[in-house]
Specification:
Titin; single chain; five-stranded antiparallel beta sheet; Ig-like_fold; immunoglobulin domain; FN3_dom
């Protein structure tokens, strides 16, 4: 073969050729164009080549979807009521087409199960009824096109009830009944109708006509003045359908033991049985559901009943059988439901995940999780926490009685990889375990972990142990590390100097003495293992305006071994899913998020950043509406303002009174000069606008200017005005 643009031909087969007349060439360039030729080989050598006509472009072969319907599916598929409908259809297409099934003019039943592969698709509906009749449409689609086909299905069943049943032409001794055929004939022709009547003083119906072939019937010889009820049902080869009753229907009623009104408690492994009697005319249809879904029948879950009763039986109860069971009855007169709440006493389910590992250091880490959703009908008393090294199969206990959904694990081995699991406990025992992902504890600058293999030969004597030596890069001397022999094939070297580079070697010792040293290890630097920081604390709302919110937070518990460079602040509307970045990085631990929409509720979160990367997002802040905060005006008067101010007679003075409030309060003040000593004054103020002067506002307490022991006493009144409130402070 060769590319069209190339000159030289390449041999694709082995030098001796192949024995078959078919060969697959691999590792070609996508979308490249190639020429191919073939030569035959015999004992005399290689023959002339035969060129493959034209060139070949290497591209994925595409094929429009195709549907192959069996001959049986091209006809009407008939299924008896209560049986299973299975439609198996062969399909093809490249790429594999997407498969959808639908039912013409109505929604596909929830009982339909669909299985699809690259070569076939299958629709299965178990326990079919007359309502499953109809046209089922199969649709295929890929990038090369679409394809559709349909299969007509007929469920062989009794017909549905006649429609629009009416009493017409009432006379003193006769009536005429009229109706329309059933909406569904059950897959077979309606052969006749059965007409019945009942006097109001009797309970049983009697047959008036069992072989009526019309959609009307006249009943004669009725007692004048009598009250009668009439009903009619359709018949096909599979039997009588539901009855349509005229003026003779009763809504369904459920009769259940009073014990089912309370929560039903059953121990795990025992049998739960809920029985109900019911009545109604015509006989209602009973349906059991659990937590809003129809009960799925299994070997241990069965629903049985008669015309007037129904029972759901669950054997060998398990925790997931807890929930609300609802019996619903329905007939033409209405429907009624009754719930029964059940609790299965069992061990708890798994704790709510994930099991989060954070704050990892050389020997410690934090674990957090959520309480289990399935508590087994009893309160969770505590949690059992266990750990396992990934190199081992056995779990070891970390703590047997953890009361909260969080724990700080200590005494971990440096550089080891761990998996943790937590089990919720109630009075019935330990629940299912929730496991964490594998984590590795940090290596610090204080130690290094070494490992080696046994020598190829023990020298004819058992090896007693090993001696480890180390040497700094800048030194020529080797220093023994372990004072006693170590029998393990690994060792932790401690008391190293941060930033120094070391190499190590190992001796083996037997009865004959020490071996030659191993080759030195590669140089390794003693330094802390770096990671992204832990998450900052939950942000707190400091202040807000109509278009901004100020938040603050605290630094994370761990900086990942390298200083925090800054923080990223994010926010979103409470109902939104996506976060918006307010600032990529800020070194402060407080930030004002601006550009917000007034009166909209937001939440905020923070991420810590170091040179390794970005931490996980912090816990989300409390929701905060972007609006101006309102604070009533107050004076901020310190002790100096409460001292007597000495002023020369005839001079003026100024008082400054600090105040605060949100929005900022407006103030009005005026300095009055030239007051006479010992004179008593009253003041009043008027407001003026373009329309004139307002009524005066007068003081209640007079101001006296007098000199006493060389000190001038004074009064000053300051008013602060605000839309919400007004305060007065007298100095």
């Amino acid at each position: 073969m060769k590319e069209v643009t190339a000159e030289e031909w390449n041999i694709c087969t082995p030098p001796a050729g192949v024995q078959t007349t078919r060969f697959t060439i691999e590792n070609l360039k996508e979308n490249a164009e190639y020429n191919f030729r073939i030569c035959a080989i015999n004992s005399e050598g290689v023959g002339d080549h035969a060129d493959v006509h034209g060139s070949v472009v290497i591209a994925e072969k595409v094929e429009a979807p195709e549907i192959e319907l069996d001959a049986d599916l091209r006809k009407v598929v008939s299924v008896r009521a209560g049986g299973s409908l299975r439609l198996f259809v062969t399909i093809r297409g490249r790429p594999t087409p997407a498969v959808t099934w639908e039912k013409a003019e109505e929604t596909l039943t929830d009982r339909a199960q669909i299985e699809s592969t690259s070569s076939y698709t299958m629709l299965v509906i178990d326990n079919v009824n007359r309502f499953d009749s109809g046209k089922y449409i199969l649709n295929l689609e890929n990038t090369s096109g679409t394809k559709s086909a349909f299969v007509n299905v007929r469920v062989l069943d009794t017909p549905s009830a006649p429609q629009k049943f009416e009493v017409k032409d009432v006379k003193k001794d006769s009536v005429t009944l009229c109706w329309e055929p059933p909406l569904m004939d059950g897959g077979a022709k309606i052969t006749n109708y059965i007409v019945e009547k009942r006097e109001s003083t009797r309970k049983a119906f009697t047959t008036v006509m069992s072989n009526c072939t019309q959609t009307f019937f006249k009943i004669d010889e009725l007692q004048e003045g009598g009250i009668f009820y009439f009903r009619v049902c359709a018949v096909n080869e599979f039997g009588c359908g539901p009855i349509t009753v005229k003026d003779n229907v009763d809504p369904p009623r459920i009769m259940m033991d009073v014990k089912f009104r309370d929560v039903v408690v059953v121990k795990a492994g025992e049998t739960l049985k809920i029985h109900a009697d019911f009545a109604g005319r015509p006989l209602p249809i009973a349906l059991w559901t659990k937590d809003g879904k129809e009960i799925e029948l299994k070997a241990r879950i069965q629903v049985s009943g008669t015309d007037t009763s129904t029972t759901v039986t669950i054997k060998d109860c398990i925790r997931s059988d807890s929930g609300q069971y609802v019996l619903t009855l329905q007939n033409v007169a209405g429907s009624v439901s009754m719930p029964v709440n059940c609790v299965i006493l069992d061990k708890p389910g798994p704790s709510a995940g994930p099991l989060v590992v954070s704050g990892i250091t050389a020997e410690e880490c934090n674990l957090t999780w959520g309480p289990p959703q399935e508590k087994g009908g009893a309160e969770i008393t505590h949690y059992v926490l266990e750990k396992r090294e990934t190199s081992r199969l056995a779990w070891t206990l970390v703590h047997g009685e953890v009361k909260k959904t969080g724990f700080r694990v200590t005494n971990l081995l440096k550089e080891n990889e761990y998996i943790f699991r937590v089990l919720a406990v109630n009075k019935y025992g330990n629940g299912e375990a929730l496991e964490s992902d594998a984590i590795k504890v940090y290596v610090t600058s204080e130690f290094m972990a070494l490992s080696w293999a046994k020598p190829a030969s023990d020298g004819g004597s058992e090896i007693f142990g090993y001696i480890i030596e180390r040497r700094e890069k800048s030194s020529i001397h080797w220093i023994r590390v372990n004072r006693e022999l170590t029998c393990d094939l690994k060792y932790e070297v401690t008391k190293l100097r941060k930033g120094c580079e070391y190499e190590f070697r190992v001796y083996a010792e037997n009865a004959a003495g020490l071996s030659l040293p191993s080759d030195p290890s590669t140089l390794a630097r003693a330094e802390d293992k770096l990671d992204v920081p832990a998450s900052p604390t939950k942000p707190k709302i400091v202040d807000s305006t109509k278009n901004s919110v100020s938040v603050s937070w605290n630094k994370p518990l761990s900086d990942g071994g390298t200083p925090i460079l800054g923080y990223s602040v994010e926010y979103k509307k409470t109902e939104d899913e996506e976060w918006t970045t307010a600032v990529q990085i800020t070194k402060n631990m407080e930030f004002i998020v601006s550009g917000l929409t007034a009166d909209v509720e937001y939440v905020f979160a923070v991420k810590a950043i170091n040179k390794i990367g970005v931490s996980d997002i912090s816990p989300v802040s409390e929701p905060q509406v972007a609006k101006d905060r309102e604070e009533a005006p107050v004076f901020d008067v310190d002790i100096e303002m409460r001292k007597t101010l000495i002023v020369k007679h005839g001079h003026s003075f100024t008082l400054t009174a600090p105040f605060k409030g949100k929005p900022v309060p407006s103030t009005t003040s005026h300095i009055i000069k030239g007051l006479r000593e010992n004179a008593e004054y009253l003041f009043r103020v008027r407001a003026e606008n373009h329309a004139g002067l307002s009524e005066p506002k007068e003081m209640i307490i007079p101001v006296i200017v007098r000199e006493q022991l060389g000190k001038l006493l004074y009064y000053c009144i300051v008013y602060i005005f605000r839309s919400l409130k007004r305060q007065k402070h007298t100095i």
